[in-house]
Amino acid sequence: MIKIDEAIIVEGKYDKIKLSSIVDAVIIITNGFGIFKDTEKLELIRYYAKKTGIIILTDSDAAGRRIRGYIKGAVGGGKITNVYIPDVFGKEKRKVKPSAEGKLGVEGIDVQTLLAAFEKSGITASKSGKRSDITKLTLYELGLSGGENSRELREKLQLHLGLPRQLSAGALIEVLCTMMDSAELAQVMSELKGENNGI
Question: How many CB atoms lie within 10 A of CB 116?
């Protein structure tokens, strides 16, 4: 398992499952062409492009190239690294028939080939190695989920940190884990609550 600082953008949940077994990183799913209409997800991708950089890892077919091109254009600034998988013909195990172009997607590529693709693009393991300890329980304990004013508190925190406003609690945990640990988050929350005792 290698830790990667950049957020990795993939097309679908099976790509994410495959990658999660070999890399420790934030992995964002585009839901295929769904990204074209998902302004909230694009905002999150832009955030990561500026903060940590993003890695675009889409399939090597026409659809994958179109999604890659769209993200590059929509993100604009920040650090974008493209990781390309080679053309490997075949069919994913879970599918009845091959894709339109007959190529394997990210989920069907073997681990060694995927790691080699990262290496070719200059992506190496993170130097920090420190793992954040923020969990769903952390958010609950700090009043960021499960409470009467949790949503308002989350929005206030997201605004304070320069994050997109409409993040789900799960997405917020992923983002916070790239920024700080639970002690630092508790400190930020205590400052925010001090500013506004109404929440």
Answer: 14
